[in-house]
Amino acid sequence: MRRIKHLILIFITSLLLHNSYALEVAREELMKGAEEPVVFENYEGPHHRIDTREAIFGIGRYLAENIEENTTSYYGKYSIIHAVDPSENDLFDADIFIIEAGAEVNHIRNLRFIISGFLSTFYNYSEEDANLLARFVTYYNAVFRKKMDYFRENYKQIVLQFLSPEKVGLSTFYGDWPGNTMIVIPLTEIAEEKDFGSIDSDELSKEEVIEELRESEDKGTEDRKKMVELKEREVERAEEKIAKEEEELKVLEEQLSEKEETDEKASADEAEDLAMLKEDLEKRREELEKKKKDTARREERIREERELIAEDTRRLIEQEETAPERVAEEEPEKTQPETEKEAEPDLAVKHDAVLEPEKTLYFLSLNEVQGEQLGRLVLINPETGDVLTTSAVNTIRERSFSFFNNFILVLAGREEGTAAVRLLLLDPKSLETAREAKENIFKNSAVVHTQDTIFAVVEVSGKWHLGKFNSELKVTATSPREINPYTIIVIEEQRVFVQDIEGNIIGLKVSDLEF
Amino acid sequence: MLCRKIRYSVVTIFILFASPMLLASQEVGIAWRYATGGAIRGEPMISADGKMVYFISEDRYLYAVTSGGIHRWRYYLGDRVADSLSVGVDGTLYAGLKKGGIVAVNPAGKEIWRFLYGDGDPPGPPVTGTDGSIYFATKGGEIYKLSHTGRIKWKIETSSEVSAPVTLGKDNRLYIPLFDGKLLTLTPWGEVLWSIKLNGSLGRPVVDPDGYIFILSSKGIIYAIGSNGELLWNYETGMDFSEKTYPVLKDNKLYLCSKTGKIFVIDKSGRLLWKQSIPESVETPCILGVRGGLFVFSPRGNLYRVSYDEEPVLVFSMYFSPVFPVIACNGYLFTGGADWIFYALDLGNEEDNCKGNKITITSGWNIFNTDNFFEAEMEYKYLKLLVESDSIDSKKRAIRELEERINKGYPGKAEPYILNLLTLLLRQGVFSPIESRNRWEKNYPEIRLKAALLMGEIGNLYTQSLLVDFLRYEYDSRVLAAVIEAIGNLRSDPEGLARKRFLELLETKGRRIIDNSIAKEIIVAIDKIIEYHGELGDEAARALLYIFREDYNRDVRQKALSVLRGF
Fold it and tell me: Residue B270 in contact with residue B235, Cβ under 8 Å?
């Protein structure tokens, strides 16, 4: 009977969804509002362990401190190849940062901490500069993800020999990272000095990257400003070096000139020495002139970038000051998207109210992450297609959610790395996590609830048991016996029925889960 | 029940200790914002009438924006900028360069001159005297005086590096704070008047109209020093102050904002009037509103209104760290931010107090009536004898000696009496010979001519106004031409008096007196003036048109037209 009710409800739901305002909510819409200029999709869900910023930064530091013969590795999870070849000119050297298959990093913030830790330790950048460069490293590698031709045109052979076309760059989706990522960090010709200016900030902030940043709502102005300031400091330092070199050269040239005038009867050897010195000075002079031109070119580019940032900021200010509330863009009529799949018979999933009275619709937007379909809850206006809110959590499991005590109950998370699978209660308006259970839940667990109680398969001392949760998501009881984690959960009157590990169907008291 | 009690307690505690954002009364609002291509550097400058705001940005531009937020112009300074901008009495802007230099830009946004000394980031902006002179310190401890046309008047070296911006006080005395704790006072001629050693390195001196100097040291002590260098009192605050801060003086009260957020208000006799605290640190000086309201900005961008009888009120919150906020006479608070944006905040109840604000240059013949200043100088006495002698040869000799003195280089402390003597020479025989037969015998046009030209070489804005006045009396066409040439060489004409006088000359003296050569000098002088100021002015336009329409030589008329067209 209950199943028939579910099916009718789903049928009605699909009818209601199929209206003359057929709509499509673009993936980009779902990611809107993200603060990042380049939008990375990160793991958002429960954790069983949260590493400190210092610990994550420490991974980068470890990599930097343990480079031997130009390579380093952190327990096989992250590696760096320092690919430098002074004999080849005009193309880039690089550090190649590899995220190996066993890596646990699942948030762009943490990836940046690792890169930042490496840059600040290996190249002596300040933390602030290293953080900024790490951000641009991720932007750059996202823009040039899998664009092997670009790397072939711009990087030395010593770098290219390590790169794989399918892995080069950085995916914007965290699920793609482990075993599938080669982050390229371009180096300058002074990289071996291991000092400020070793990372090629011009390359990291080239036109394609800036254009990508400008696509975001705030046009990436904050990061672009900081990058310009960093480049300005680099140029200033370069100018100081040039001035010093100029002075030294001047002195040497004067000395040479005096020597040439006074040593009229120089011996053949002395003449040869003088000629070599002259040649050497000329070469240095040439290099110095080249550096001056390069610096002037850099300054011009910085000036252009400043102009662009100023223009963009003025436009943003104007928009802020003059635009009324944003009007929803009209979506062209398209075919109706598929409604949620019919529930599997062994899943007691409830949709108490899919349609809110205020013309909103809850939906799960799915994404494949290493073979699993994980969801993000979205609140949509079914008439206009406007995405009203999206949940930060993007790992909702089992393609289901239900309404429980003025919240939305979901099972979310993953079992990899520091992530965990837990029960969550989301606020129905903001879709933010209001509560999170502390206990690990089986990733494919059935989740069943009554008015004020939730039942799911919970981990107890490494084994799976039936757990009873109250409305605060606190465990109030667990089954005395280990159960089959794939069991369905059926509540009938005062008993709850599950299948134990032996295969027996057992009935437990709802009140205390005892026999 | 217990849960509900706990919840209420948590909420209460949260509200009490919440971010100040929750408590902001928000009576202050952003009037406008202007985005630039770099962080804003240094203190913004406001024109005397409050209509224009000027500021420099790390994008190397000097910006001019109206007080209503309309962008007027910007000028590319070409080099990295320092925290250094000031505005001269004639409206010329002086922007400092990080590598050590000053760029003079007129109010129309054109560069007039550039002076590079190459000593690195200066300790503060230049200061400008009422005679148009510019004084500044370099990082290495040198002090320069330049004329308003960019010529070096003098340069001296100090015993230690300069620790804060220099200040100009009464009679154009220059106060120089040094790292070694000395406060040095110089005359406008570069002589040390006095120095006093204080405890700690010194901040920017503040001088009141009576000539008293107030200065904060790095030990948190505020000193009051008399105009003769005597220590009047000191007050130990026991606080740390930011390097950027200094005492703000208004209505005989000194306002000090310390790093810890404590605010001191002290009267001129050193008595503490009241203290207050804000819950944050402070890195910039206290800001006083037009109506006397006291405001304090924290580095986090929180603006507090502070008074003696109330708890400080958070009136505005921003997310930027302010750079040298100032309140203009129109009641707006202007500040740049490290976020590359320049802000104007409307403080709500501050009224416009800009009416009647105008800088006037002292003019007239009595500027140099400072007999008690250099009367005792032997050289002056000797030259004065020559000047006042009835013998034309003596006067010629005086002129020759003055010319030699000037050509040797900057005359230093002789400058005021050289100008005094030149003024005397200029006045001689200036009355119309028809009016007084006696004077006709004492008519020395060649002396007046030379005196005028020399004044044009070493003069300042005082000299300029004197020469403009003199045009009314001169009747000899060659001398007239020389005076006009001298006015042109001095270039600055802040109140437009020179241009007005040129037009008067043309309209009243007639063709007989204003011949081709004088007309040409007028055109050249106007050209130099409008190049300096960047604006033509109504009288100058009319003067040029007048020349063009009169029956002057073709080349003269064409020149007048080309100057008119070129602008």
Answer: yes
